[in-house]
Amino acid sequence: SQPGVAANGWDGIVAAAEKEGSVTVWSSSDQKLINKITSAFESKYRKIKVNSLKMDSTTQQTTLDQQLGANRPPSVDTILGNSNYAWLQGLAQKGHFEKPQGPNNAGWDAKYTADGMVAATINPFVMMYNTNKLKSAPTYADLLKPEFKGKIGLNNADPAALKAFYDNWRTQLGEDYVKQIAGQNPQIQSASAVVAQNVASGQLLAGPTGNAASVELLRAQGAPIDFAIPDEGTMAYVLYATAFARSAHPNAALVFLDFVQSPEGQGILNTNNSGVSVLPDVEGALRVPDGKMTLIDWDKYPTDKLQSIDAWWKGLFG
Amino acid sequence: MTTDAPAARLDTSRAPRPLWRRVKPKSLVHLLGIVMIAGLVYPLVMLLVRASGDVRASWDAITAIPDLWPSLLNTVWLALGCVIVAVILGVLLAMCVANLPRRWYNTAQLLCTLPLFMPPIAAVSGWVFVASSAVGYGNVLLRTLLGIESDSGPFNVYSLPWIVFITALYLVSYVFLFVSTALRESDATLELSARVFGSSWFMTQIRVVLPSIRPALYYSIGIALLLGLGQFTAPLLLGATARVDVITTEMYRLTSASPPNYDAATLLSVPLLAVAMIIVAVQRRSLGNLRRYTSVSRGAMRARTPRRWLIVPPIVYVVLAIVPPTASLILVSLSPYWTGSVDFSNMSLRSYQEVLATPQYVDSITTTLEIVLLSVIGGIVLSTAVALYITRSRSFVARLLEFTINLPIAMPGIVIGLGILISYGLGFLDLYGSQTVFVIAYIYLYMIFGTRMIVSGLTRLPDSYDHAARVAGAGAVSTFLRIKLPLLRNSMTSAGMLMLVLMSHEFAASMILRTSFLQVLSTKLFDAFNYGIYPDVAALAVIMVAISAICAVVILSTRGGRNLEI
Amino acid sequence: MSLPVRIHQLEVAYGGRKQDAVVAVNGVDIEIGSGEFGVLLGPSGCGKSTVLNTIAGLISPTAGTITVGDQVFFDKSRDINLKPEKRGLGMVFQSYALWPHMTVFDNVAFPLRRRHVKREQIASRVGEMLELVRCQQYAKRYPHELSGGQQQRIALARTLVGKPAVVLFDEPLSNLDAELRIQLRDELALLHSEIAFTAVYVTHDQAEAYGLASKLFVLRDGRVEQTGPPLNVYHAPATEYVASFLGANSWAGEIVGREGKRLVVDSEYGIIESTSDPKGLGVGDTAVVAAYPDRIGLQRDPSGAGVVVSKRFGGAAMEIVVALGPANDDRLRIRRAADLVDVHEGDRVRLVVDPADALVYAGRPTHASDREHRPVPLDVQS
Amino acid sequence: MSLPVRIHQLEVAYGGRKQDAVVAVNGVDIEIGSGEFGVLLGPSGCGKSTVLNTIAGLISPTAGTITVGDQVFFDKSRDINLKPEKRGLGMVFQSYALWPHMTVFDNVAFPLRRRHVKREQIASRVGEMLELVRCQQYAKRYPHELSGGQQQRIALARTLVGKPAVVLFDEPLSNLDAELRIQLRDELALLHSEIAFTAVYVTHDQAEAYGLASKLFVLRDGRVEQTGPPLNVYHAPATEYVASFLGANSWAGEIVGREGKRLVVDSEYGIIESTSDPKGLGVGDTAVVAAYPDRIGLQRDPSGAGVVVSKRFGGAAMEIVVALGPANDDRLRIRRAADLVDVHEGDRVRLVVDPADALVYAGRPTHASDREHRPVPLDVQS
Ligand SMILES: Nc1ncnc2c1ncn2[C@@H]1O[C@H](COP(=O)(O)OP(=O)(O)OP(=O)(O)O)[C@@H](O)[C@H]1O
Ligand SMILES: Nc1ncnc2c1ncn2[C@@H]1O[C@H](COP(=O)(O)OP(=O)(O)OP(=O)(O)O)[C@@H](O)[C@H]1O
Ligand SMILES: [Mg+2]
Ligand SMILES: [Mg+2]
């Protein structure tokens, strides 16, 4: 029979989900985090098995585009932690996402669940630094000092969020600043986790495009690394979670999405300073002083804008 | 050879034989040969078809690449750099080994081929841990030993010289193989007579020894150039930071973009294809007069005046190629996180447990083993069939097959990956995303190595073995099963193991063919290197090295380094 | 049991297409009686192995017939071509061709197994065979653990174990060193006298041919040049080619007359009389005189045409070279017991040849140096 | 110009470490006078090439001295070891060792170029040399475009072009076929008589040694077993080893008495008298009798100890094998002209050996079969 969302309310959805028996989740989060939320979900819904796959945002996009382009149903039920707003918007417009409708949706501000794109985590770009080599977090200005030459780690500008970050840098600190940063010969990596490890090892001193979760993970191992929100303030991007409407397990997808919205789910996703939660008072979640964090306004970044940023960035760093 | 025409009766005016009797088994074999050729040519044709499809759009996409011209230039410079370094070192090594005392010869020969068993992706990641400017183990060690006060250097792995160095380091083994085989087969008295006629040792090497193995030199220069042009792993892993892009990484980027632009990628591969063809053609020409260089006797090892100290360069080479990357991978894999300092108290096997508890990693290992095993089996069967065919038949089809089966060597893995993707992957068979397409690609890429080994095994078998069996009453099939197959067993085993090693290392084509769900060890290692935790990366790489090491032991112990002669 | 072998107008061309085909055998007729020991003798490349391989069925001739006993093995005109395994022959190869992956026992048992002989019978017959070639103790060894002579014997055992009526030999002794070659040649002759089989034996070595053959076939460029018992062939070579190949010197001359039954030839080295009387030769014709090295005597004679270029000790006999002038290519090689020679280097000499030993042929001599220009095959190819 | 070669107490061990070293040469003394043609003769592996290579300087001996003319090439005790390129010798290799990447001209010019001879002079001297070996027309060819004999001649030209005082030859003819071998051997002898050089020539072929040597050195296991002109060595082999190696039959006996100058031996094949008188042998001692195949006569005698096992036609002579019993391994090989033989297969015979031809040695005979057990190298390995 044609899969679809059960019509008879939340209990019906849960029952249908249990009948579906499993849910496929793609997540760009750290593997441990994925494992943690998987086991928490599975112990709550014992009849639903989670097939989780770690996959970075770009790959999620490539893979899905291929499948949908070939008119095949998506092989994923729930995306967890994709930051590419524009792309998700496109999918939402084509009706690929179900609206969240679980009991936990009640406490959520509608702007954080618009178009079925649930803000699972808010990630500010943080300044990572090596605590053995630096007494305190460097400011953006510090990065231009000679001792930072070759010792700065940056993410490449492939993800849209980073394009926005660099663009913001340009508007906030000036074109010249970014040029000087490029002149510092930074190490370019594809993932903050990798930059973080290079900072922890001492290969790099600092990374302004850091991600709190990666830092916390290394700290737990005893690595000499910490992070700070720069005084100049920082950009933040949202990692969205969605439930697919035309996948193999649409009901289970909704149940999983609801779990993401639950205080328990939010606790896991944002634990240990790894992200900012939409819900207030989530224990362990990162808290950013007021006014120091700006969510990226995706309306300011249409495709051609992103392309021009990309060309500009590659001219400097590529 | 016998015709298998049935013994006819006296009556020649009988009705014509039924059709199935008239189709001779021979023509069936030729037909299979043609099918095989078609299968080999199909991806290349598809590349050209696709490249010539929407040339305008592709051209625009290519010219839109910001650093295209620097990338092309880089490709040329890197290739030339690799060739120069690899050929000089390879030739020097081969000459050292040739002048060793006889009882050391085999060991030294084996030693110098060991770097071939180092998985490229693991090697490059290993070198990152060795030569990262601030906390690379090698840098830290050197700074401590030399008392350098700086907190970085002297090496910086993310640089053009290091990309050349790492790539060339493993090309040396190839050059060594060709040159040292040629030296061994050349007549030692050529050198000795030059000495007697008044030429010093050094001048003799220059004037007599090297020129007399000119074909092998040309051949290895050609191969090194091709491999250098197609280099992918080091530029991909180090290039972003070193700001060094090459044509293969640009191709990869085109195919991994969203949406992937296969047309542009294929168009970009055309120059590589063309250069490969030119090199092959030039090689064929310069090898034309091979007969001049065939020596009457192979006296080789016997009479050269041995010099023991010449064992030092081979040892230095092997130690350099294997120990630093492997050791640093092991150190990192045992540490909780990567630092330049070694703290034994913190070490544990945690990363290994982690890797083995992560389904995606375990999946990639089992997927690799599955794909590689299937490919090896397919590769051996096909290699044996092709080898038998091209050694037995002098037909045009056989010679054409012999030529086509050699083509994949000339082309970069990424080009072949792309060709396979658009032919078998996205073509009428629509195999993209299946293990089968990997199996096809791996067989396509590495069957030639198996075929060569089996051919050389076959040519070592005199016809008289077969003939004796036939005359003794064994039919053609029985002769094949009881005489030929058992005698080929060793060749087939080592062919299989060699293919196993090469396939399990395959990276470039796999990068093109992989999907999120179907990853092999090398591509998973690449992802881990880019997105993952270094100790886990290191543990995964160590596992990969260990698998290769096991294969190396099997190959090298079955029949010594001769198994590697290609 | 043994069977006669008859080959009629055999032709073999290598290389399928007509233009570049190498005609290796060109109309060969061979008849070897049941139990006879036929030897094909000829220089390298004359087609000996090719003939042998067609008998075995390993090569398909382009024309002719091959019959063994009553069975037609090959007949082009009737489209008959028996597969090798159906011919029931034995064959011994130059390289022995012992299968390296089988023990001596298994090697020898192979032909029996292929004929589905019973287990116990195989054991006993292989045992007997190994005893015959005095190699019982090596049954469990592998070929590479044996000396060349032993390998050769095993190859023989493997061939004879199936009691073939016809056994083919392709230069089976040429890989052995001189001493062993002679020893095994004798053993082979002995075996042939003990076990009945028809032998077709290929060699380029005269001594081997003489020692084994009951019927000799001298081959030249894919044809049979002369047939007969070795003694006859040696003493009456049919052509100058055969005489030269068997080691005779030959030099040019012109027939100047007849004395009774003797032909008188005015040769480069002086007047020679000969009892041989080749057809179609008359006074005034150019001719070749040939004589074996041990059949030429020398007499000092200041007016003699020859000069002793060198006289060297050669073991059992002296080796003397006589030429028309010191630097001339046209040389005679003479080999005589030391006590029969009283000439010295530089002496002018006259040849003394018994008319019965002087062979005369039509035409001009072929010199060794004419034959030398074929390039030597290289053993290494890359 | 030619110079004498003196080798004193030469010792060579292969393989540096003492335990597993192969002592290939073990105290060899060789003296070859200026302009002499010295030949080292011995079976494979006896160390011939090793000696030659030490003279050339390609191998370093472990002890001894090598002197050429007044110049000490090697002296272990004085730590002198001239490099090969400083010795100014010529050398011809078995494999010819022509450099495949150079034309014939360049090959021959190489030694001159290394000695910085002037351009014009090189051209003329190479031309002369090529003329001498009759290969002028091949100057521009590459070695692979020449036949084996031509290659050999070029190798000779290359060696002689530098006018070396001493020329070393390492089995230079063994790769050629029989006919060519004899021809080139003669040419070499001629060249040596025309150009003055001292030759040190290595071979395992007796005929070659006899034909070339003015002084023969028979080697055995790294030692010189006998030295002398070929004739002397042949007629008076110093030991049974030398006699056997030169082709003599040998069989066991016991000394039973003396008759005047003759020794009487009661041998396996009957009573033999001999004029040879080896030292230290007295009545009652076991001894070996040896005689060359052509020096043994046969007389039918029903009470004779020998049986004619086979009698076969062998070209110039009959080949007769005599044994103690039909199946016995202990065989004598006799080679006599057909007219001197009137025995038949199966006859009991008595040996007739001229006392001057009967050689007697202490000890027991070594049989060919004892020597056979060395494994031969296989060309195929699996
Ligand atoms: N497979 C082949 N293809 C083409 N020509 C061949 C082939 N085999 C042999 N020949 C040629 O046929 C001729 C006869 O060859 P064959 O092997 O019968 O000579 P042979 O008398 O046995 O010589 P040898 O004494 O060297 O073994 C030679 O000229 C040879 O070059
Ligand atoms: N490089 C080497 N290492 C070890 N042993 C060697 C070496 N070269 C020769 N020998 C051994 O030394 C001995 C003498 O060898 P050599 O080559 O001098 O013999 P030869 O008389 O020239 O034999 P042939 O007639 O086969 O050329 C042999 O036993 C040989 O095996
Ligand atoms: Mg042959
Ligand atoms: Mg030698």
Explain this structure to me?
Chains C, D: Keywords: ATP-binding, Cell membrane, Membrane, Nucleotide-binding, Transport. Chains C, D: This is ABC transporter ATP-binding protein. Chains C, D: InterPro entries: AAA+_ATPase, ABC_transporter-like_ATP-bd, ABC_transporter-like_CS, ABC_transpr_FbpC, ABC_transpr_MalK/UgpC-like, Mo/tungstate-bd_C_term_dom, P-loop_NTPase. Chains C, D: One of its GO terms (molecular function) is ATP binding. The complex is a heterotetramer, with one copy of chain A (318 residues), one copy of chain B (566 residues) and two copies of chain C (382 residues). Chain A has 318 residues and is α/β, with parallel strands linked by helices. Chain A is 39% helix and 19% strand. In chain A, strand 1, helix 2 and strand 2 form a beta-alpha-beta unit. Chain A starts with 8 loop residues before the first helix and ends with a helix. The model of chain A has no long low-confidence stretch (mean pLDDT 86). Chain B has one domain: MetI-like (MetI-like fold, Orthogonal Bundle). In chain B, 54% of the residues are buried. In chain B, helix 13 runs antiparallel to helix 14 and helix 14 crosses helix 19. Chain B is an all-alpha fold. Chain C has two domains: 231 residues, P-loop containing nucleotide triphosphate hydrolases (Rossmann fold), CATH 3.40.50; 113 residues, no CATH class. Helices cover 23% and strands 34% of the residues of chain C. In chain C, the strands form four sheets. Chain C has a six-stranded mixed sheet, sandwiched between helices. In chain C, strands 2-1-4-5-6 form a five-stranded antiparallel sheet, with helices on one face. In chain C, strands 14-13-12-15-21 form a five-stranded antiparallel sheet. In chain C, helix 5 links the parallel strand 8 and strand 9. At the C-D interface, helix 4, helix 5, helix 6, helix 7 and strand 17 of C face helix 5, helix 6, helix 7, strand 17 and helix 9 of D. The site of one magnesium ion has 3 residues of chain C, from helix 1.
